[in-house]
Amino acid sequence: MAICPHCETVGEELFSPCPNNDGYFLVEDDEYFSQTTDRWLGRQLGDRFIVASILGQGSMGYVYKAYQTQVDRMVAVKIFETNKVVMSDEDGPVSQDRFVQEARVLAKLSHPNCVTLYDFGYNEEGEFLYIAMELVGGISLRRAVRRGIKREAVVEVVRQVLMALREAHALEIVHRDLKPENIILSYRHTSNEQIVKVLDFGIAKLLRKDPGKRTQAGLLFGTPAYMSPEQCRGETNVTPASDIYSLGCMSFEMIAGHLPFDSDLPQEMVRQHQYEPIPKLVPRKGTELLDGLETFVRTCMAKEPEDRYPHAGAALAAFEEIVGGEAKSGHLARGLERLGGGAAPRRVAVPKNRITGAKLDPTGEFSRAKLLEKLPSSSSASRDEPRIRESGPISVTDTVPGTNNERASDPRQGLVERLAGRSGLIASALLTVAIFLALFAAFLYVLITG
User: Rounded CA gap, 47 and 418, in Å?
Assistant: First the structure.
């Protein structure tokens, strides 16, 4: 059922204007009831995108699923409120001009392993900026790393991430925030292959605050667990070698099952990246280490940029020399087969208009039946499974597919479920007490009668 999130008028057709002409559009009722206070739901952005549901929230903005009216597809839209993102350079604020300039550069990035940027803009009042991009189905690498992945999958993930970085570096685009949350394991139906998608190229630079201030830039331009030493020092003019360092940290984590540098304090982690020697790479139990792979990882993680591979093209060439025919595109599922708890490999199938089939879910939290129940029926060019998201906060550079703050469903339904659960507990307790009293009475009877 479709509903207007502003006046709650019910209608039949999704994404059609509200019958009351209040400027809002109809969205799915379950999306509305789960986010009744969201200010963007049902609104239109740039006369092109109708906000359909919220997917995540970060410190400087929100991530939504939206319907692009002209081409009849669903997209991911990031909305950044300008009062939280104050962009400037040494000559003063140039928010909108620099935003457009940087976004145009990112829009040139087109590669099967990169999430495509479709559109960008801002409203006339300067209230917000937005970026519309490809909506990808799949799971994040973070989720896979938590359970551990086989060698073939590690090799193929690294290879495809390097392919994405090679394309970006050739266009002089540096990711600046490469991490497992920004890498999605998906499926490409046109070529029948598992595919790795890299999200959020250049978003950190696009939305940086006061790049003339080294301390702020260092905090924004990455995630402490994967930041290069130069980023940790607060340098703003980072090179492709910084992405190579982040890739080395991710590769270390996939192979060893833990981060090379770890601490509960971000400041301590930043110090370790700058000064601590690279730990020995010890593979997880049951995992073999290919000859030369540790050398590759250590070269990626060299403290000084000039000691690393200068860009992804050079790193990819060195990587292929090491792994040879170890894995090829399309065989990623072989390395993920045990993530489902020993079951046969499951793949994310992406037909022409939506995701169907079993989700590649290493945690085993969602069965095929549950996933199919949650699939939307409206058409789109590419879909993300709704409400299947990772735990933990979402940063400004997290794109929703594969990330997650799992969102509650209809609150009324949740209340019913909670009451039903409490009733069951009370009934069980009463039954236990009754059995105890009966046994105690029988015991007394035996004592009295002899």
Answer: 42
Q: pLDDT digit string (tens) for 116-151?
A: 899 988 776 667 888 899 998 888 899 989 888 888
* Options 177, 243, 361, 398, the catalytic residue: 177
For residue 438, the number of C-alpha atoms closer than 13 Å in the C-beta half-sphere is 6
- Contact status, residue 115 vs residue 134, Cβ threshold 8 Å: yes
Judge contact between 249 and 242, C-beta under 8 A. Answer: no
CB atoms closer than 10 angstroms to residue 7: 12
Delineate the domains of the chain, giving CATH numbers in brackets.
84-112+140-387 (1.10.510.10)
- Cα 93 to its chain centre, rounded Å, is 31
Measure the CA–CA gap between 49 and 119, rounded to whole angstroms: 10
Alpha-carbon span 165 to 246, nearest angstrom: 11
The span from the CA of 270 to the CA of 285, in Å, is: 28
177 in active site? yes
User: What pTM, to 2 d.p., does this model score?
Assistant: 0.69
* pLDDT tens per residue, range 144-178: 898 888 888 899 999 999 999 999 999 999 998 89
DSSP result, 366-424: S-HHHHHHH---S--SS---TT---SS---TT--STT---PPP--HHHHHHHHHHHHHH
Question: Tell me, what DSSP letter sits at residue 103?
Answer: H
